[in-house]
Amino acid sequence: MISQVFILSSKGDQLISKDFRGEGGADVQAIFYEKVTALTGDQPPVVMTHKDLHFVHVKQGGLYWVATTAAADSSPFTIIEFLNRLAALVKDYCGSLSEKSVQMNFALIYELLDEMVDYGYVQTTSSDVLKNFIQTEAVSSRPFSLFDLSNVGLFGAETQQSKVAPSSAANRPIQSSREQGSKSEIFVDVIERLSVVIGANGILMKADVEGEIRVKCFMPSCSEIRIGLNEEFSIGKSQIRGYGAAVRVDECSFHQAVRLDEFDSHRILRLCPSQGEQTVMQYQLSDDLPSAPPFRLFPTIERDGGGRLLMYLKLRCELPPKSAAIHVSTTIPVPKGSVSLSQELSSPDQNAELKLQSRAIHWNIPRFPGGTQLSALFKLEVPGLTSASMLEVGPVALSFELPKVTATGLQIRFLRLTPIQPGPSQRWVRYSTLSDSYTIRV
Fold first, then answer.
1. Cα 29 to Cα 76: distance, rounded to the nearest angstrom
2. What distance in Å separates the CA atoms of residue 95 and residue 108, rounded to the nearest whole number?
């Protein structure tokens, strides 16, 4: 049973607030934000309590999605699932998830809440059911236009050379509008998150991959889709023979709507997708990457004659030459008391900054081609530098995105619609590997 639902910005500003039962006061938002920001650590607890009121929250799109309940027997897992589903529906109906999109579509979000919850009891979170009742149309900060995309020869252009979709192509409302026309499209995204620990000797100590296949459907009348995976795809120690590269995962789970009658024999997923985004498959792989980790670091740390700390870092991208990593950010912890930084970087598009509050150097690389190496020389002024304080350097943390790459090698063989849709329709498959935790000891 839910008493209130509200959405706060990262600064604590109230964007949406809906009181279903009148069990909380007018200051519950301020109480929640005070509690969530007063805690130390990067990740506050999902469930917090104030007197007889329980706060359950998730953070998505840089926003706090919060539900309160006064019932002692309410399941926090049910409320967490509801909040995640609410955020997904807002993204589906508004096109994107941000403070601005929520502000511009507050009427639509209130209408969603009215249809989803009745006096604190969840009625439905299905987009197929809700689309029959939602009348408010989404407001986009930048209306979707095929002309914008065709000008750059990307997704939406009616040309044979159009092969690539921009990452923002699917960020539009699921409801049709006059700007979007009646174009039918379906996206299949293979997204993997990589967690790696590399020792100071360069040996891989730990590697985990968490992946998922997401489907986002903009087809009003799609009866079934068939997604073919690598034929040599195995789960656990089992093997299946076929053609193409072998792919193995340790665990695998599927959405309840997925039919698996062709999965064991042909590695085909069948489902009737609802409009909007849904995760049809999740999988995990531990300590057995089929290829080398994407980055290697070669550090040299020493003290010069003037008492400064010198760090010479060579960072190598182990991706194939035609691939590239983007948004590469390297964080290097430095000794306490560091006061200033001078730097020499190997290319002009890089930048680095010493942040005294976090006691770390942030080295940013917008684009890092595969098979190349970049270097940086950092000179730190550290009053009273000793051998003990030099041990405070590291470990180095990397964050990055690898477009068109999967760490496990999972690929989509085909994406078919059954029956074939009348009129024009587009099918798009995208791959991306993101860093979840990539640590290199020095």
1. 19
2. 12
Please count the CA atoms within 13 angstroms of the CA of 9 that sit on its side-chain side: 11
Residue type for 160, please? Q
Within 13 Å of residue 321, how many CA atoms lie on the same side as its CB?
0
Indicate the pairing of strand 14-19 with strand 53-60: unpaired
Measured distance CA(355)–CA(161) in Å, rounded: 45
Q: What are phi and psi of 288, to 5 degrees?
A: -155, 65
Instruction: For residue 200, give both structure tokens.
Output: 């100071």
Among residues 172, 151, 173, the alpha carbon closest in space to that of 162 is found at 151
Strand partners, 345: 376
Tell me which residue has tokens 């159009």.
162
Mean pLDDT over each residue of the chain, to the nearest integer: 83
Say if CB 194 and CB 222 are below 8 A apart. no
What tens digit of pLDDT does each residue of 259-276 get? Answer: 999 898 889 999 888 878
Contact (Cβ atoms closer than 8 angstroms) between residue 264 and residue 252: no
Contact 297, 438 (CB under 8 A): no
Q: What is the pTM of this model?
A: 0.75
CA angle at 195 for the pair 193 and 200, rounded to the nearest 5° = 150
Residue 277 near residue 216 (C-beta atoms within 8 A): yes
Alpha carbons within 13 angstroms on the beta-carbon side of residue 96 total: 18
Residue position matching structure tokens 């252009």 = 157
Read off the DSSP letter of residue 229: E
Most distant CA pair in the chain: distance in Å? 75
